[in-house]
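Our working data are protein records whose layout never changes between entries. Getting from the letters to the tokens is the skill we practise here. To make this concrete, we reproduce a full record directly below:
***
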Amino acid sequence: MEILVVNDDGVFEIGIKILAEALKKYGNVTVVAPNTGRSAASHSLQIRQQIHFVEVEAIDGILCYACSGTPADCVRLSTSVLKKKFDVVFSGINDGLNCGTDILYSGTVAAAKEGIIEGIPGVSISTDRGCMELAKREIDSVLEYIFKNKLYSLEYVLNVNFPTKKFDHSLGYRFCRQGIKSFKTEFIINNKGSYDECDEKITYDDNKETDVYLGMHGYTTFVPVGIDQTNHFYLKKLKDLGI
């Protein structure tokens, strides 16, 4: 099995090293990741600019490349430049949760989505900020669960999140839907005439069937995230208007 591993934190970060080393037992692992942090890059692409793509020594025993593009670019260049037929893309382990509305901003999730677009099943994995030790302890079990049950698919990105930082271990696994995290950010002008973030308030989903709620209550969550963003319920209602 040919496995592509990407992230948005950067090729030299600890999360991608933990993930890549854990995946070695399942096949031939190739790492392609940004040459610097590209958090919250979402599904952006670097266009009308040169993209550098070079081999680097980042993880012992694993072929690694640094890409100057976005996380999605990493997947695009991997298939074009390396000429490999990858069987699955794993993105992560991200240092910061990608649950609820985070998915909209996440370069980690977007890289896995780009895999789907390129015809490669995609999985994204994230942990709460500063909780990489929890992820390191539990990644083998999560990967075994994914491979044993063949949870990766071309029909969806499997978005996996470890529980929030108040837990030192997962209480179990839950399939669920994406929740909502509402962000309200305040900015203040600085002495250079530009603006800095000064405060951020986050409202968390209290629906018990969502990744936001379940993660806050100790569970590792698995959400199938689609490429098709059509709201099919309301599409039908609009068509039924007869206008």
In short: The helical segments are 14-23, 71-81, 102-105, 107-117, 132-148, 211-216, 232-240. The chain has seven helices and eleven strands. The two ends are 51 Å apart (CA to CA).
